[in-house]
Model the fold of this input.
Amino acid sequence: MSDLLIKNGRVVFPQGVLKVDIHVENGKIAAFGKDLKKAGVETVDADGMLVFPGFVDEHVHFREPGYENKEDFFTGSMAAAAGGVTTVLEMPNTYPPVASKTELNRKAEIIRNRSFVDYGLYGVLVDDNVGELAEMFEAGAVGFKAFLGPTTGDIASPSDPAIIEALEISRSHGFTIAFHCENRHLVHHYEKKARNQPITPLTHLNSRPAICEVDSVMKINYYAGKTGGNALIVHLSSGESAEYLRRNKAPSVAVETCPQYLLLDSRSYEKFGTFVKVNPPIRNPEDRERLLQGIREGTITNVGSDHAPHTPEEKSRNMFEAPAGMLGVETMGPLMVDAALRGLFPVEKVAETLSTNPAKTFGLYPKKGALTIGADADFAVFDPRQQTKIDASKLHSKHKFTPFDGTVLAASLRYTILRGKIVFHDGELEKKPSGEMLKRQ
Done:
């Protein structure tokens, strides 16, 4: 635990920006005030800088155990810290999948003392483990993930009765289930049709049209509304889904999108090909604009990276055979801050969608994602007077590709602070991991 004084910063709350000092004591926020003075305490002069609550990336695939050739927790969490992310929530489609208390405990032991940021672990929802969800939650699962469409690891989709029962359990126990919303049967149908056509840069987009997502979004939203279960619809990609949710979103539903859907569109396939292949696909310019509107109006409540790396050899296959996924945990925060400074949405939305709402969705608030007395002293400090350029070669993940390579950003990340300890400063990471496993509060 560390004592720290952050002076003169423009602190970004979801409700507004306030120039105020922050005193950190024993790793917690102890005080806010003007002209605070504390003798013998490490001081960060944040004059002119934006101080955000540390980002909570609710959607990362660090691939350990089972797929360490793509990424592992050590490198993935380094990338998180270098991007202003102080908490990651790690997906369960590792190998073997996290489908039981035994596998949850095994994974927790494997990655213990290997994370540069704090972290939580998902369990997976399948038909065979609905009766074990409560036990897994009590054992420390931060939430659960249901893959309704095909994904890495080819995990079976839960049946509709299993989804309803799981949502009822989530309501009674207070946990959240994240849903990858693509109708598996429709995906197979449209992919079969696409395979009968010549392969083009748009093949992947054509093989998973928006109807695949919208169908599942409507179902999960309805099921959550009927059961009162806590659902997070992850990586929303289509404007049609956003418009449906604007009019119909159930009270217990949260909605996530990712920077790639907000900042890229179908024109990116011509330039980057399979390296921007993700599930669901990056869609058309009009979808991108509608998702940005969803951020501004609050229909989209959360932003996650869906950091999902693969090797360059795997991504170099043709559009059907290359796996879906791309890097994101290190670039998510800088890209979203840049987007806010360029006027795509208010800067307060960065604090709300990247910190506060993800922490609330998974029961980590106000320990995480909060700028309040007693919260963990987690911060991402950006200097809007200092432009920076994304350099893929300097990313901390095992594999270095990003379509944002060379992008000039309107602000630079100066500090990442975890529980009062500076873990990243001007390009330099701390040498030893100090992240801790989190459980829902």
